[in-house]
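Appendix B. Extra example for self-study. Work through it before the problem class; the solution is given directly after the inputs so you can check yourself.
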Amino acid sequence: MSDAPPSSFTRYPAGGEAFPHKDLTGISELAPWQILYLLDEAEQWVTLNRQATKHVDALAGLTIINAFFENSTRTLLSFEIAGKRLGADVVNMHAAQSSVKKGETLIDTAATLNAMQVDAIVIRHASSGAVRLIADKVDCPVLNAGDGRHEHPTQALLDALTIRQWMRARGEEEFNGLKVAICGDILHSRVARSNILLLSALGAEVRVCAPPALMPAAIEQMRVSPYTNFNEAIDGADVVMMLRLQNERMSGPFIPSAREYRHLYGLTTERLKRAAPHALVMHPGPMNRGVEIDSDVADSIERSAITRQVEMGVAIRMACLDVLTRRARGVPGWEPLKAEETA
Amino acid sequence: MRPMAPLTITGGRLLTGQKSGDKREPAAGAIRCDGDRIVAVGDVTPQDGDRVIDARGKIVMPGIIDLGVFEIDKPAFHFGGITRAALMPDQPPPLDYPARVRFAASFGKPDLWVHPIAAATRGLEGGELPELGLMREAGAKAVSSGRKWIADSGVMLRVLQYTAMLGLPFITHAEDAGLAADAVATDGETATRLGLASAPAEAEALAVARDIALAELAGAHIHIRQVTTAAALDLVRAAKDRGAKVTCGVTPAHFMLSDIAVNGYLTFARLSPPLRAEADRQAVRRALADGTIDVIASGHDPRGPEDKRLPFADAAPGMAGAETLLPLTLGLVRDDVIDMARVADLLCANPAAILGVPAGQLAAGLEADIAVIDPDRPWIVDSDRMAAQAGNTPFDRQPMQGRAVALFKGGMELKT
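Solution. Structure tokens for the complete assembly:
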């Protein structure tokens, strides 16, 4: 295979019109059909990844930099595997080893990466908006692997792909009316924000649940229902999405203790009975077993999609890298974006 | 310096900045200056040997007194019709020693007078008292906590007792330190969607309530440099009604913009206090109309790319505001929020009264600080080509109406 075949789905505009973006910096920039396009594009990579030979040469000769200004193991690994399975040369840049520690500004770092003629940059940064700042300064596509509390779009896409596969197995297709409860540290969570945007864009009914200190102000303006009572939040939910409680927030000003957090907000087998009988349990990882989620729930073969999420993550990231590099690779129908579209 | 010929400006409409009487609104008249002083205002005819300038129907008003700037930026001030600026103590190093105050006080002369504001605590750290009395002798016209709020109420009370004794106003930055902590935005949909650390707008009212209470206890004059929320403005209004020595100000950003202006992580709209909700912006406009707000200042704080071309939370707050101060204030007249007489109060007379300097009005005997302004002159803000040291303005590319067409400091004509 020299090039990944352009989508065979006819419900999208032809060629590059199907995804008229230079970068993927946030779900907020995507129309609902563009989200579905990426999900559909990922299906082929799910299939590939389950074969014995998991490699194509679609991105052969391209250089991808994973620039992680914040520590990550899973997301970095997932992007690295995705790039390598597509045949690209993948380089990882860790902040700890970079000149960022020497006081170089983010813009200068971006200019440096740009000058190295890379073909895509994947960025994680601790400041909200940092990825957009870099994306505006470099010529190649930029993928957001998490910026501050703002967005983590590939996580939301992989979650949606996981949910859709689960729905299809049950003979359903539409996100409309799906009840999703997102529980945990909503305030500091980019995963929550991207998931709220994506799921509500596709018509799901999203509830968020957190102790008051970890609930953002005016969250209801994002078309979600806020809850502080976990039992009420998961009542009848089709999907229960748990968020990781950061260690540094487990005791002190935000919540009194991990023990109390588990008592009020931990997902236990008993509590899960309040959700719909078929409910799917998700967690972006890494988990704090015995804090936000109990092991018997996390490891439940019938209910937990946690390892499936990791699997879908690679496929989604392959789809994003493939789609965003098509213009540079000269894939037929994928003309360069006009200035006003990249601006 | 060669002695200047006496100057007479004829053909203008005089906006005198007088607090009472029938000369509040602009009226046809002339003004005559000799040396650095105004000698006659109103029904004046030029005398032989005078340099005569025809204002051609434009407004002739006192030079603007900008109460609370962070940088001495003459080109920007002169563009904006500003002849005096009160310099905030947040300087490198802070204005917490008499020698620094004395240097700042002489720094701009003769074409710009700087009125230094002394640091309320050493290093602006909120702890020990600096030599406020000696700094007053050195030229300090006020005392301020700078960009920060003094969190320790005991320290605040002692500073206020001291400023009351010295007869200096205390200029406070009203944001409760515990609530505002690491916040860079106001709680609300915008901050939540952008994932920015935010604080409730009530952080301002809490700080204002405490500061007013302590000022009343100490018998001090407190000036709240920026009041930006409805709740805090209500507190100021109530305090004024009971006769407390409270005054307050605002910068144009808070009556022009609400928090949606930071969308896209625009660091030029990163301000302190942060931009507020639309309802609060409307409350600021009402408070300008009803007289609760005494001063409009630029908060001039030019910041280059090294401070602004950063992720939003990492960028420094502040905007270059000197050039847009006058046109945005005149916009309030066009919007029927205030009249021209109030423009002179807000920009000239009130700042002078708060600082206790004989200026801010067109009256015989005062320094000849005069701005001739064309309230209708159109121009467009261009952040790449500002007079200011840096172009960090949230009003980039926006059309403005009104600017100074001639400016005199102590009778000396300046380039605007």
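Self-check: The first helix of chain A runs from residue 32 to 49. If your reasoning did not lead you there, revisit section 3.
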